[in-house]
Structure to design on (248 residues):
């Protein structure tokens, strides 16, 4: 592993994942990898609980990490990969909280409160990422909402304090020569200089994944609402077809 991302989710980590892979640090581990490999969720929860974890088995083929859950374990990853550079992605705390609150937190609450929502989300992840991620809520709750934010994420002041404390701890614990504090709006120059690679000719990938997450949450909520009405109709139609088929 060449780059360890220590910044919380919603600090431009999806854009950063794409950028790092464009620079040759490919593949880069992001929360979406859990969707593609649902078995990874058990690994991260075990690591959070202090149990024996197969770091090499899960992350051995990755050149970089960004986003949750890996950012929570940046120190463990530094121990596993001595000398690796650490990238602390940041953004304005108020902006970070608003983005997190209205995207991944809202989606998490929806999945927690509805078995049907988890099923729909899992099927969606199967179609998009190739893995059924309907059971990832334990990872998100254990490590992020309950673990990192101690069940108080809805307290804005508290959540921002946790965010700031995490960033300050990274700055204290990582040797300055191995650390880059970075905002994705800075583009290629500081990132490429830090990593010692040339700047690509392509523009930096600024990806608006917040809009995608909000659309996905609305779609899941709409399907949950519609399912009690639509499902009986579909089952009745299927029954009619089966009955007609037996009469032919």
């Amino acid at each position: 592993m060449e780059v360890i991302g220590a910044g919380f989710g919603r600090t431009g980590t999806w854009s950063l994942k794409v950028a790092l892979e464009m620079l040759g640090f490919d593949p880069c581990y992001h929360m979406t990898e859990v969707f593609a490999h649902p078995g990874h969720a058990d690994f991260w929860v075990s690591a959070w609980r202090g149990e024996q974890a197969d770091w090499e088995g899960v992350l051995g083929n990755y050149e970089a990490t960004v986003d949750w859950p890996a950012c929570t374990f940046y120190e463990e990853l530094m121990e596993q990969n001595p000398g690796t550079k650490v990238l602390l992605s940041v953004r304005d705390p108020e902006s970070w909280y608003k983005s997190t609150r209205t995207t991944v937190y809202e989606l998490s609450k929806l999945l927690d409160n509805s078995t049907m929502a988890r099923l729909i989300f899992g099927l969606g992840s199967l179609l998009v990422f190739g893995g059924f991620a309907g059971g990832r809520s334990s990872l998100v709750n254990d490590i992020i909402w309950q673990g990192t934010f101690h069940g108080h994420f809805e307290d804005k002041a508290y959540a921002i304090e946790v965010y700031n404390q995490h960033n300050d701890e990274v700055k204290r614990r990582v040797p300055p020569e191995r650390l880059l504090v970075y905002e994705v709006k800075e583009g290629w120059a500081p990132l490429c200089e830090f990593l010692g690679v040339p700047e690509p000719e392509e523009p930096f990938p600024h990806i608006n994944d917040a809009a995608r997450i909000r659309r996905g949450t609305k779609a899941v909520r709409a399907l949950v609402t519609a399912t009690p009405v639509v499902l009986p109709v579909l089952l009745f139609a299927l029954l009619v077809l089966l009955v007609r088929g037996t009469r032919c």
User: Anything to note?
Assistant: The domain at 3-247 is CATH 3.40.50.300 (Rossmann fold). The chain is about 60% helix and 5% strand. The longest strand covers residues 85-89.
